[in-house]
């Protein structure tokens, strides 16, 4: 399965192409320049892979949760490229991507959601196959997060951003460096757990619908 993968859900722009024989990737912190950098880097990767869009089988992208603006950029890119080349899209949650990278065990993924909150989900991960999510992806304050008893791996930048999470990690291996990476979408896309969709049916997973805090809420958040 020849694939293109896109993730703009964090401050990193993460892109990858699999031409069926080799993978080519770009993963770099770009802050707010996802829209500016994405198309030139995608063109470079396709050239390196010696493959055209039309020769791909699908385009996978991180549907969220994550940066609201970044998610819309990734979805728009995936849809536009898929429409132009007549390809389907595969929408994959960003937390599933982090779980895919974490290693085998019971994995709690926490991704910084800003506003003093984290997106979280728990997974059962084996050495074979895609991670099995054990419940819904949710958003909550770090101190309100419910920890499953048997967590062996704590993954995602929420554990770097919020000390309250580390206090509950116990003996779990902490992998706070893990963020959504385009390369990790390839095994997920091939797992069969995520449907191939027409480009027009691409969907985002926001989890939290409120984009910004009021001035009063910002002041309260700073006092915590």
TrEMBL record:
Domain Gcp-like: 28-128
Keyword Protein transport in record: no
Classification of source organism: Bacteria, Pseudomonadati, Pseudomonadota, Betaproteobacteria, Neisseriales
Secretion signal, residue range per the UniProt entry: none
UniProt protein name: tRNA (Adenosine(37)-N6)-threonylcarbamoyltransferase complex dimerization subunit type 1 TsaB
One GO molecular-function entry: tRNA N(6)-L-threonylcarbamoyladenine synthase activity
Class of the enzyme per the UniProt entry, highest EC level: transferase
SUPFAM superfamilies (alphabetical): Actin-like ATPase domain
One Pfam family matching this protein: TsaD
This enzyme's EC code(s): 2.3.1.234
Gene that produces this protein: tsaB
Key words, A-Z: Acyltransferase, Transferase
InterPro entries attached to this UniProt entry: ATPase_NBD, Gcp-like_dom, T6A_TsaB
